[in-house]
UniProtKB/TrEMBL annotation:
InterPro entries: Acyl_CoA_acyltransferase, Bact_Acetyltransf, GNAT_dom. CDD domains: NAT_SF. Gene3D superfamilies: 3.40.630.30. The lineage of its organism: Bacteria, Bacillati, Bacillota, Bacilli, Bacillales. Its EC number is 2.3.-.-. This is GNAT family N-acetyltransferase.
């Protein structure tokens, strides 16, 4: 049976399903905390009659015993590209191939057509051949490829890489954490740095959220602390940042964001920031550090894999289907 998800009751069943496809685990509590940050859905349309606004409907599939065996979500935010819905469909491994995934997807697709979405986006692990085939049979095409990379901290030897920090400092760059410069003025400086550097990420589309929403999803996220946000400064100007997020289940850290202003690139500031992030993760006892990069982001991939020594992990394909 396909039905709308009951919140928060179904989170306990949904979290284990998501953990079968996500690289880092989540919990029912974390899913609820994130949902509580999102205002009620309100969809609109722009002058080109493209879908805009918020919404986040969810569905589950139950077996004959009333157990949740599959989950689907379609969502967009005001800064999502007009017309676009991003979605996830996941089926318990023991029930894949039974038709439940198709039934759940049909419910999601029907809603997407009712609200006049123009395209659907899903992110599927590159090693999940069955899900990729499922998507391709329904008209999805691969648009982008994102790689995952992992650094095993117990065996990591920073060696001469630490010199990148000293070199940047000798060139006049100062490194601080957000904990050393707390307050809204610093947060707004950091927001502007994110806003300027985000569009340089290959594949970035859509608008950038306003300050309050950006803060909600970047500074106030579970597992993010001011002392884990490293900032590069030239005088009073914020010119680079690396942000870490810790997963309490694994105690590992995610290198969530790295950005450097264009005019400061080529000075090894990103490498220095990443090394500060590595030091922080090791000091916190994290067993590993994980990050991700678009396949077309050659400079960051070079720093992560060739300079620092991150190990390549299976990534994900951005799968896109046009609805009109």
């Amino acid at each position: 049976m396909i039905r709308k998800m009951r919140q928060p009751d179904d989170y306990a069943a949904v979290a284990p399903l998501l953990n079968t496809i996500w690289s880092e685990p989540t919990t029912a509590e974390r899913l609820k905390e994130e949902e509580d940050k999102i205002p009620p859905g309100k969809l609109n349309y722009d002058e080109a009659d493209e879908l805009t606004g918020w919404d986040r409907p969810k569905w589950v599939a139950e077996n004959e015993h009333g157990q949740v065996i599959a989950y689907a979500i379609a969502w967009r935010a005001p800064w999502t590209e007009p017309g676009t819905l991003i979605h996830t469909v996941v089926v318990h491994p023991e029930h894949r191939g039974s038709g439940v995934g198709g039934a759940l997807y049909n419910a999601l697709q029907l809603w997407a057509r009712e609200v006049k979405a123009s395209r659907l986006i899903d992110f599927i692990r590159e090693t999940d051949d069955r899900s990729l085939a499922f998507a391709e049979r329904r008209g999805y095409v691969k648009e982008r490829h994102t790689f995952e990379s992992v650094l095993d901290l117990a065996s990591f030897d920073s060696g001469a890489l630490d010199d990148s920090i000293l070199g940047a400092e000798r060139a006049g760059i100062r490194f601080i954490t957000l904990a050393e410069e707390p307050g809204e003025a610093s947060e707004r400086n950091l927001y502007e740095l994110y806003k300027v550097t985000n569009p340089d990420i290959p594949g970035y589309v859509g608008d950038f959220p306003w300050f309050e929403e950006w803060k909600k999803w970047n500074l106030d996220q579970d597992g993010v602390r001011p002392e884990w946000i490293h900032i590069a400064k030239d005088g009073d100007r914020y010119v680079g940042v690396v942000t870490l997020q810790r997963n309490e289940q694994t105690q590992a850290m995610y290198q969530e964001y790295t950005g450097v202003l264009r005019e400061y690139r080529g000075r090894h500031i990103a490498l220095a920031l990443k090394m500060l992030g590595v030091k922080t993760a090791r000091d916190c006892g994290a067993p590993y550090l994980r990050t991700h990069n678009d396949s077309m982001n050659g400079p960051m991939l070079h720093i992560n894999r060739d300079r620092i020594g991150f190990r390549a992990e299976p990534g994900s394909y951005k799968m896109v289907r046009a609805l009109r």
